[in-house]
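Chain entry —
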Amino acid sequence: MHNTWKDSFKLYLDKRMAWIFLMGVCSGFPAALIGSNLSGWLKDSGISRGDIGLLGSVSLVYAINFLWAPLLDKFRIPVFNRFGTRRSWVLLSQTFMLFILLAMVTVNPANELFIFGVLAFSIACCSATQDVAVDAFRIDQFGNNEAEKFPAAAAMSVIGWWTGYSGPGYLAFSNADALGWNMVYQLMIVVLIVLMLAVMAIGDNSPDRSKNTATVTPANNTPSHWCYETLVQPFAEFFTRNGVRVALTLLLFIFLFKIGEAFLGRMSVVFYREVGFSNDQIATYSKAFGWFLTVIFTLLGSLFNTRFGVIKGLLIGGVAMASSNLLFALIAKVGPSESLFAITLVVDNFTAAFSSVALVAFLSAITGRTFSASQYALFASIGNFGRISLAGVSGHTVDWLGSWELFFIMTSIMVLPSLLLLVSIRKKLAAIIQNG
């Protein structure tokens, strides 16, 4: 921990933070394509909120990307080989996304919802693969003796993610009424091309992994040995290093922490439209104003986590998470009040800042450097599985409850189990983070 705020702030002057920010933008961009932007397109096309919620389940692929994550630790992509292991996978994922978007703008979701869903799922697959490479890129930038930089790196990654998510989101919703969603997604193609050029231009402090692409000796060059080395060893190392009991406890906490937030997030755009907010208001408040708040609170959250530790950051973020969900219930009761919308976003983005920075920093700290892509992907997948699998029925849950107010109260209650678990294991978590 740093003794002064000034020491903490100096961490951001490291040029690697700029690289991490840009890679975070790349990670957040496809989340907009298959998240809020997609929900807006589907809602304006007359698709039911139940179907919108189910179509959002294409994001379940994020929960299983740890299955192929070991491949990203082992191989480079020949065409993009000169950009290094991590960036080569990012560029490959973005190339596939480019072709999928070109196909998506030829499809009308109102008439071809299944084909539209297949294309959205394809983007999710590319995005999930890209996320593995982006997370590993961030972790690889720092040596084992630079753990104090993890909160700052997490902050830049989170700010980058929200920039990649909110920027295209603002562009989309502010132009949706005038241009139509099809033209909006054509603009998204231009954004993607710019991001690809940015990935090619940034620096990279990742270690040379070329030796890891063919590590098996002739005597051990068997399918079983390759499978063990590639698919089993990264996860076995995590359990061996922490012990089975502690490792399982950590995974349970990761699984539970953001379930309530994801349940709310899946239906947020649908809720905004149904309660009476326009696309322009969503663009101004949720995207532009929301992005500004996220940047400010993420920087503050990073400084807090650097000075006082990620455990306190996780606890504060969790409490704020439950509180912000209750404010959404108040909007459902009052109606489309812009002032209440702004207040809710302040609290909601404070929540995102403290919880996300603390969680990313925590996951980075418990990730082994030898298998950074594989292990971080496992942790992210565990969290994503709980959030995305349950969030898939969020639309039907609103229909079943018959009330947006009850829905948001329920999402607040869903936060409590993870907070209780956090309190019960906080000493173990602190020891793991300190020992790095």
Remarks:
- Residues 365 and 436 are 6 Å apart (CA to CA).
